[in-house]
């Protein structure tokens, strides 16, 4: 995807969020207690862990971004619905866009979830970053489903001509 405005926009947004979160994590590091809540049940913490757990999700975010990026480079390796020679190119382009969206939104989802953990650990309001993380996660699930339905409705060139 050369000079794709979607990818460029996602790169700028996700890089900005990664840099902000990294800065915020190190800025608040001295205020974070040594033991923080790492799991919640019914809104209350029920598992605790070291504050170093706050480094795991950004690492997972970057790792996820990298691994999905490998799939983006080879859209022909993915499974398709109604894939024919006539529809191959458009399906590959659309699948690549969906995978790029999932690549960046998935990575940013981990960052916002970690931001919610960070804010909760220092006693700040954490509902907004958590809500954003859930919304982005929903987008990551809806995008491939939308692509699946779109691909299922594609007509073959011969079907359009009535032959």
Structural features:
two-stranded antiparallel ribbon, 163 residues, 5 helices, mainly alpha, elongated
Describe the 3D structure:
65% of the residues lie in helices and 9% in strands. It is mainly α and 163 residues long. It has a two-stranded antiparallel sheet with strand order 1-2. The longest helix is centred in the middle third of the chain and has 34 residues, at 88-121. The relative contact order is 0.15. The mean pLDDT is 85.
Write the layout of secondary structure elements.
Layout: H1 5-28, E1 35-41, E2 44-50, H2 56-72, H3 88-121, H4 127-152, H5 157-161
Antiparallel strand pairs: 1-2
Helix pairs in contact: 1-3, 2-3, 3-4
Helix content: 55-70%
What structural class is derived from the secondary structure elements?
Answer: mainly alpha
Contiguous helical run count: 5
Radius of gyration: 20 Å
